[in-house]
Amino acid sequence: MRPPEAPLAMPKQRLGDAAPRHRTPPRSLRWRKAAVGLGAIGITAFATREMYLVLAVAEMIPLEWALLSLFSINLAWITFGFVSATIGLVLVLTDRPRPSPPAQWRPRTKTAILFPVYNEDPAHICATVEAVAHALSTSAPGAFACFVLADTNRPGAALREEAALLALKAGEPTGCPIYYRRRTLNHERKSGNIEDFVRRWGAAFDHMIVFDADSYMETDTLLELVRRMEAAPDVGLIQTIPQLVGGRTVFARSQQFAAALYGPILGAGVAWWAGNEGNYWGHNAIIRLSAFAESAGLPAFPGTPPFGGPILSHDFIEAALLRKAGWKVLIARDLGGSYEEGPPSIIDLTIRDRRWCQGNLQHLSVLFRTRSMAWTNRLHLMIGIMSYLAAPLWMLLIGVGMALSLQAQFLRPEYFGNDISLFPRWPIIDSARALSLFGITMAILFAPKLYGLIYGLWTPLWRNTVGPLRLTAGVLAETVISVLIAPILLVAQSASVLAILTGQDSGWSPQHRRGGYAWGTILRRHGRTVLLGALLTTAAFAISPIFAAWLAPASIGMMLAPLLSKLTGSSALGGAAQRAGILITPYERDVPASVAAVTAREPSYAVLTAPDLNGLMADRYSRDQRAGLVDSLWILPPRTVHVPLATAIAKAEWLKDSETPLDDLLDDTEIMALLNDVTALEVATARWCGSNL
Prior knowledge:
Blueprint: H1 30-55, H2 62-93, E1 111-117, H3 122-139, E2 144-150, H4 155-170, E3 178-182, H5 189-201, E4 207-210, E5 215-217, H6 219-231, E6 235-240, E7 243-244, H7 250-274, E8 285-288, H8 289-295, H9 314-324, E9 328-332, E10 338-340, H10 346-369, H11 375-410, H12 431-458, H13 460-465, H14 468-501, H15 519-543, H16 545-559, H17 561-568, H18 571-579, H19 586-589, H20 593-606, H21 613-618, H22 620-626, H23 643-654, H24 662-665, H25 668-675, H26 678-692
Helix pairs in contact: 1-2, 1-12, 2-7, 2-11, 2-12, 3-4, 3-20, 7-12, 7-14, 7-18, 9-11, 10-11, 10-14, 11-14, 11-15, 12-14, 14-16, 15-16, 15-17, 23-25, 23-26
Transmembrane segments: 34-55, 75-94, 379-404, 434-458, 479-501, 530-552
InterPro entries: Glyco_trans_2-like, Glycosyltr_2/OpgH_subfam, Nucleotide-diphossugar_trans
Protein name: Glucans biosynthesis glucosyltransferase H
């Protein structure tokens, strides 16, 4: 189940060290960054001046200065994306067809396809691995190998995973071997999982392509990534731009429609200004193993989580370290055939976002600790940080605006201060200018949606598969949904930032990928959002009905959060929308071959059953059959006892006269320790089975 080890050293990097001298840094297209930055600064400066003139009709008070500051910070974040998207629109509208690769080209190098999994659905994982392995075995025999790298730590999931892997290995193609390794000790989470592969087998391969648990990639895309790496020995990483597929709920369909229509525009803009200093999103990318090993070993931060410990959002840092070491990091925005699934519901998105938020806020430490990091990579990190800090900043902006309104409504104005003045200080604003500024802000905010509509109407792919009417209806539907759920996500992200800043660790929970929550869970998850919406609405009506109407898009979304969460997370409504042709994407009209291949294979794994621990102990054949799956390497410090393993064996002896099944007497860590050690499982079986089986 595992090939002979071919170790490749992967030293931990010191973020404070200067950049290595042995490689010439790739060219940085600074004028492109300057163009985007200056464009964003110019628009922000103009709008900030207009806001100042709105507020400065009379003498500015502290709350107005706070409002002006928050407005300028939030607008700078929006305008940067607006300018980048504007450039992206020009690029996608002027694109020329990509030339086809040479017909006779075949890989000269060896590439490992990695599937890191953590308590995932084994039927889906094995169907994906089987589809990829068989396709590559036919297209490029001997050039690829697939590795399922499991960090699974739940006994039931582990045993189902083993049953699926045994079935997968039974049909393994000769031209693309499939290997399986499950770690006992999940050090450093996903980044540690990948690092373990590099340290044990990295020298046997030139490249690795990392899949996520819900990734799909076309065979031609995999081959083209390898071809580009072989043609450019100075490139360390090439990141594709995955499209979302497989959405069944209204929320997932809305997300995948937005990604399919707006994603190419936003991706083109980022790829243009990033140039040779692109980013890495953790999956659907190819990485040069020698470059990754020499320069991307991640250190742990001192202290405890949430800011200390392993780096959670490791991908951004790995890209920065590759670039720091002189390797190019590219975003292949012209390369299609890369897909993934999105979260099925608002709750699933917020659970995932909580972990991402912690990882991105950790990057604050990286910015201060790392020397010689390219400014473009610092910009990538700041964009990631701001994507979460923007939420509490918007909440503060709403709060300050409401405080100003409450002050004007209920507090007696101080018409004359302590100094002598002939004219009173009226707390007034320029309403006409404020309305004009509001229109400009909304135009900047919603411009990417208009850009997407233009792109869809211009592009034959959308015109011929979806059509102008359904495209326009989809943009309107997605806009309405995004406006309604934006306040819910605003509250959730603000709460995540607050929790992290107060020292709460997100932990490491497996991602829920199928949706479907009961009302009790939904009400518990969105309770504080409803409460905040009710408080904002009450305060707004206390000011005036007009103010309440102005705040309604935010407050109504908050108060209806449970209902919106339930409806948008419904597969039935999602199916109805699909049948009605709402939120249709080209990838639904013409299903990618990689997605169809997995869908066809998945049922054969879904019907497999696996024994529990007691059933395994009672069945010698099952134990012998799975023995090859178990990785005997436990990376423990010298003279260290793995306590769960020792207690599991001891309990098997001490409690052997109990009538209770052994797996009911052991906790998950103890059961996993037995499952991950063939000898220990035999010892425990011998001790327990004497009187129980």
